[in-house]
Amino acid sequence: MAQHSEKAKAKLHSLNAALESGALTQVKRILNSGLAPVDVAHLIESSPPKARKLLWELVDKDLEGEVIQHLSEELQSHFLSDMSAEEVVDLTADMDTDDVADMLQQLPERVTQEILESMDHQDRARLEAIMGYPEDSAGGLMNTDTITVRPDITLDVVLRYLRRHKTLPPMTDNLAVVNRQNEFIGILPVSKLLVSDPQQTVREVMTTDSRVIQATQHESEVAKVFERHDLVSAPVIDASGKLVGRITIDDVVDVIRDEGDHSLLSMAGLDDEEDTFAPALKSSRRRLVWLFINLLTAFTAATVIGLFKDTIEQIVALAVLMPIVASMGGIAGSQVLTLVIRGQALGHISNANINWLLRREVLIAGINGTLLALVISLITFLWFGDPYISLVIALAIVINITFAMLAGAVLPILMKAKGIDPALAGSVALTTISDVVGFMSFLGLATLIVL
């Protein structure tokens, strides 16, 4: 495996060198015979826009389908938008149905309809079955390449039926057992099929307590089921119990990766599909929205400081110490916010344990706030020699850490209840709360105690 990785790196290095020197014939040869499609896709995504266009044009037509399915949604949409309906149909001919559906859902409805009309009846019916479900549901994630068998036939008949196939669908670890109405009954594990008496019936060998996914189930819930039960594949059924497809682990890995990217980028106010090499103007527009929101929150904090400008003018030390109070509250709150968002993603947090969680955070805030207040007040006294300012900052630290930690626990819960993504908006709201409470408590106490 390591040897294969080193060979791939060496080929990528050779390709980059050829690309820089302008040796396009050599680049084309390496792209189409020297690299795996996933490595070609990685190279395209790692290149600036002009180089991307050139590399894509050098990929052979018969390899485009394998390469494009490894690209980000934004790049897929960009390349597909330049193709005719017939070209897209040819490109997706050998692709899994769920991957084709994902790509088509990125295109305008008019273009998608034109592409569907260009397909044969069977392929169109499979695609429409998937596209009838939301993209982030099990139905939108599933594939329709499921092999089904009836419960009353023998295993020998099943084996002869399988041998008629040239290949089996990827990751076929079991066969779905259905009745004549296509209602799901259970699964026949391939491992049992191979070691059991061929004269036994499917009903005698099949498993009826297998994990089944509802087509309307959210993809994040599907990922949890796969993770919890170590599944390789799982059947998908509709509301009436009929088998409509199956989900495999490779699709679930994509969901887990996408959710990780979403959480990471959302914390910084970035879009899920943020492209490392996107044009400057495009990236600027995406980032500017959250920068403006942060600007508004900054002015809110500045307004609070402005209310106490006379106090700051009389006691210069307050201006020096203010950032400490806001910073400590922000960090303490961020720790809790991250923990709660992760707990929500894992399904650990519910109405049954919210109160316990809040009580625990209050206790932690009391312990950490008191210890930090003692350290900071001692340093402040040694620095400025004023016991009253030391008292003020100690009280403000305890107040702000407590409020910030409670906000970090409560905000994700409230946002999720209101249908707001806490990963996207939680950090902005928390920063505002910790800044406002920190400045208000510190400067307000200074006005009351010191002056």
The residue fraction in helices comes out at: 55-70%
Tell me the number of helical segments per DSSP (H or I, 4 or more residues long): 22
Strand percentage = 5-15%
First and last CA, distance: 71 Å
Q: What is the CA-based Rg, rounded?
A: 29 Å
Order of strands in the sheet with most strands: 1-2-3
The count of DSSP E runs of length 2 or more, i.e. the number of strands, is: 6
Oligomer: single chain
**Overall average residue pLDDT:** 84
Protein described:
The chain is mostly helical. It contains 22 helices and six strands. The strands form two sheets. Strands 1-2-3 form a three-stranded mixed beta sheet. A three-stranded mixed beta sheet has the order 4-5-6. α8 packs across α10, α15 packs across α16 and α20 runs antiparallel to α21. The longest helix is centred in the last third of the chain and has 31 residues, at 316-346. The chain starts with a helix and ends with a helix.
What is this structure, in a nutshell?
This protein is mainly alpha-helical and 451 residues long. It has helices spanning 2-21, 24-34, 37-45, 49-58, 61-68, 73-80, 85-91, 97-104, 109-117, 121-131, 138-141, 155-163, 190-195, 202-205, 219-229, 249-267, 280-306, 309-314, 316-346, 354-384, 387-417, 422-449, and strands at residues 148-149, 174-178, 184-189, 213-214, 233-237, 243-248.
